[in-house]
Protein: ATP-dependent RNA helicase
Amino acid sequence: MKRPHAAQKPAHPTHKRQKLEKPATPAPAPAPAPAKSSAPRRKIRLDDLSWKAVSMPDRLEDFEGFCGLDEIDDVEVVRDGATLSFGTRKTAEQIEKEKEEGRKREAEETRYFEEMRDRQGEVDLNVDVEGEAVESEWEGFSDGDGEGKGDARGDGGKEGKEAKSVEDKGKKDKEQHEDTKPVKEAKGKEAKGKKDKEQHEKDTKPAKEAKGKKDKEQHESSEPQAQAIGSGAFDILADKSEDEDEGDVDVSAWEDIGLSKETLASLSKLKFSEPTTIQSLAIPEVLAGRDVIGKASTGSGKTLAFGIPILESYLKSPPAAKNHAPIALIISPTRELAHQLSAHLTALCADGDFKAPSIATVTGGLAVQKQRRQLENADVIVGTPGRLWEVISSGQGLLASIKRIRFLVVDEADRLLSQGSYKELGEILKILDRDDNAGEGAAPTPAAEIQRQTLVFSATFHKGLQQKLAGKGPKGGGDLMNKQESMEYLLKKLNFREEKPKFIDANPTSQMATGLKEGLIECAGTEKDLFLYSLLLYHPKKRALIFTNSVSAVRRITPFLQNLDLPALPLHSGMIQKARLRSIERFTQRPGSILVATDVAARGLDIPGVELIVHYHLPRAADTYVHRSGRTARGSASGASILICAPEEVAGVRRLVAKVHARNEAAPGKKKSAYFIRTLDIDRRIVARLKPRAVLSKRIADTTIAKEKKHSEDDWMRTAAEELGVDYDSESFEKEAKGRKGRGAGRKKKEKEASQLTKGEMGALRAELKGLLAQRVNVGVSERYLTSGGIDVEALMRGEGNLEFLGDAGALGFED
Ligand SMILES: Nc1ncnc2c1ncn2[C@@H]1O[C@H](COP(=O)(O)OP(=O)(O)OP(=O)(O)O)[C@@H](O)[C@H]1O
Structure:
């Protein structure tokens, strides 16, 4: 006999299975219909059961919040007057068995990510890595509203239907990329920066010692490196600390800063012989207890500027085991950056003569329960605002311990604090400062009572840099915030304990890295693919990062390049986490590989040996340009950042240049001349000869995508029809849709035509392209540079042949 109870209607009824779905964000618990078993029902705590992650469509895997679902079966909600409780008819053994299975599943996942951490000396880089199937954590940022919402060509908005093809594509990318053999590195001319020489020397010397050797080895290597997933993505620090043979380095240059012998030993193992400018300026202030706002160019070592003081504080007074509280909360705008920060700190503490602090990385895309457990004993918490807010606001007892942090770090602060992205961070800050006894609307803790130090870092603090470049923009960066304004802005957003935090600007004249050269290539908007291909041939075997403004552009450009035998890899937030991880890892490991990415890769990623940044789409805001370009020329390295620019984009480029370089003009002692970005001279005759293969490759890529899309659309329609109990016939559906002309009708027609190419026709196209790729590009004997009457592009890609002919950045006009 069943016991009577008043079960609620499910809030999220499911059609086929009776289940209780638990949104990853807190929501009132829905109640399923009663279980069918006749066993007696027992009261249970939901957390005592084994929740299983609901497998989501790829595009949703990266969503934060509601879309991270866990489920349990056979649970009833029982109402007793005003009190709700949960009951199950499962036996204790059944529950235990399920929990055991859950633990195994989790252990497997943990093993996977820990394996990566061990190999990297780092953490699980969930190189997202975060996303939004659109980037959940990026959504709403001033310049990040394009991804997943359509691209510059207006072919977005179909993310749902493209979802399946993402993984298929991922697999294909993988297969295709497996085939790409690393080839001998071609040596380009070393770019020699003249600007800010003194400071550059200071900033780059240590990095030179530490990084140069590894970069060189990587670039000269002609063998594929380890292939295991995760082993290479952020391994540079781990490699350094493990490199016992070379011995530790002299770190006496750090002594003035007053670090412990343990930290000095760790720095020595990392072979960081001296601090960078931002480190030598910021660390003593933080150690002295100051709140610090630190600005320094990309790749100048900001992570350790706050990481070292956190380690010092930990060493000085490790958190007590009883009544444990974390020391630091570090907030990052993206998942990959969060994991990289954890990795960096883990490497700093690896193999030290002390018990390493426990670091929890709390980002979307990983099981939230596991992260909650990690948080229980974490000494340092690194995370993205969305997931942090979720665990803090729904955790038990967590908030009280997090309130006792000694350091709150806001990395890439301008990004985190910018319009539209502040919401969850704002909630976290509010809750950290709220007096628990005072209730909701109470005033925040007065500054005098705040115990923690607040540390805020970025390469860009100018509000003007975040304003969209499209449309009319202010001339010459007149809206830039000066130090005073930046300070006021931050003081409004963050509850510092000091009335006047210490503002440290390690690069007052420019936020661009000193070893960076900037240029643009002008071409017709419809020929960007062709010019991109040509540009990459001008830079044979250089590790290159191509930025686009949309997921769909990444999906299109990656196979376009792969068809042309270039080792291209995709990275965007619509990819499942593991695929993103793989892309970063391969990009890091394989010399000369090309990463085609959205702005998910723009901030913070520290991948060694990136020599070329290509902006296929103009960045929407100047800060994005600074950060994208900052993926090269890190530390002492040099690199080039090139915009591929349609004539109608030139005005936007001018605005961008004016904003980014406005400070150069204003700097005392500098000539008040405008900064002119160089137009690079790419030989149009060569481009013309490359056109047939580019056109063919584009056609093959577009056809493949159209076919995948058609396939997934059909699947989607069929499923929907099944659920409605009607027949689905794609042809009659299309007939009916005919005549209805709306936005994108022309594109749809093209897609349809493309998707109808037969296998045989596709095979013929591929064979034709193969034939073209095997041919030398004949440019005629009379043309400049020419010695042999033709270029063997294949040989060039192998690093052989006449490099003088295609040249490098110098030959593109970077040389004065
Ligand atoms: N003192 C040092 N000596 C040599 N190398 C260093 C030193 N400190 C940091 N590095 C290395 O410099 C690189 C860049 O550091 P980091 O990622 O902290 O830069 P960043 O300023 O945060 O850059 P971004 O603004 O792009 O996020 C890392 O590979 C790091 O290992």
Observations:
- Residues 522 and 650 are 8 Å apart (CA to CA).
- Residues 206-207, 210, 236-237, 272, 275-276, 279, 296, 298-304, 459, 604, 606, 630, 634-635 surround adenosine-5'-triphosphate (CB under 6 Å).
- The chain has a mean pLDDT of 69.
- The radius of gyration is 28 Å.
